[in-house]
Amino acid sequence: MHEYFAFALLGFTSFFTLINPLGVMPIYLSMTADLDREMKKRTARKATIVSFIILVLFAVTGQLIFKFFGITINSLKVVGGVIFFLMGQDMLQARLVRAKISEKEVNSYTNDISITPLAIPMICGPGAITNAILMMDTAESIVFQGILIIVLSIVCFATYLILLNSTRIYNLLGETGNNILMRLMGLIVMVIAVEFIVSGLTPIIRTILKIE
Question: Omega before 117 cis (within 30°)?
C-alpha cells in the first residue's frame, strides 16, 4: 500500500509541476478575454480532455515507439532529465517559457485555441509527455498502471478547475504570489530532473564499464 501511495504522490507532483496550470492560467485568460463564460468553460474542458488523451496515448504506446526506433528508456531518462532541468530553471526565474506565443500566432489559433496552443504544447508539452512514458515504464504491474491513469485524470481535472476559476485565482494571488508558486514548482521540477538523470546514467555507465 505504501508503494502505491508513493507512486501516486510522485506521479501527481511531477505531472502537476510539469503541466504547471498556474503558469498556463495567465495565457488562458488573455486568449479567452473576449469569450463569454460558457465558451471559456468549453475551451478549458476541451483543452484538458485532449491533453489527457494525448498523455495516456503516449504512456501506453511509448514502449512500442522505443522498440521501433531502437531507443532505450535510460537514454530517454537522461534527455528527459535535461529537459526537466531547463524547464525548472526557467520556472525558478518565473519565466513563462511555454507561453512564447506572438499576437499574430494567437490570432491564427482563434478558431480552435483549445487544441492548439492550449492543449498542445502548453498543457501537454514535451516534459509531461516524457514523464508519462517514463512513469509508465516504471509501473511494475497493472495496478501501478491503473494508478498512473487515475493520477493523470486527477491532474487534468485539477487543471480544468484552475483554468475555470483562473480569474479569481489570479486576482487572489496577484503577480507576486504567482511568481512565488512558479519558483517553488521550478525547484521541484529540477529535483525530479536530477533523479531522472542519475537513474538513467547509472546503468549506462555500468554497461560501459562492464560492471555487473
Answer: yes
Q: What is the mean pLDDT of residues 184-195?
A: 79
Grid coordinates representing 150 are 487515475
Q: For residue 114, what pLDDT band results from cuts at 50, 70 and 90?
A: confident
Are 152 and 132 in contact, with CB atoms under 8 Å apart?
A: yes
Catalogue the E-assigned strands of 18-73: none
The residue type found at 150 is I
Region of residue 20 (left: phi > 0; alpha: psi -120 to 50; beta: else): left
CA–CA dist 91, 83 (Å, integer): 12
The shares of helix, strand and coil residues in the chain, as percent rounded to the nearest 5, are: 85, 0, 15
Instruction: Give the up-direction half-sphere exposure of residue 144: CA atoms within 13 A in the CB hemisphere.
Output: 17
**Gap between the Cα atoms of 21 and 24, Å rounded:** 5
- The predicted model gives 181-197 an average pLDDT of 79
| 148, 136 Cβ separation under 8 angstroms | yes
Phi, psi for 204 (deg, rounded to 5): -65, -45
Nearest-angstrom CA–CA distance, 75 and 161 = 35
Q: Residue 82: is its pLDDT beyond 90?
A: no
What is the residue extent of each domain of the chain?
A: 1-95+113-209
Residues 62 and 46 sit within 8 Å (Cβ to Cβ): no
Digit-coded pLDDT (tens) for 125-143? 778 888 999 899 888 899 9
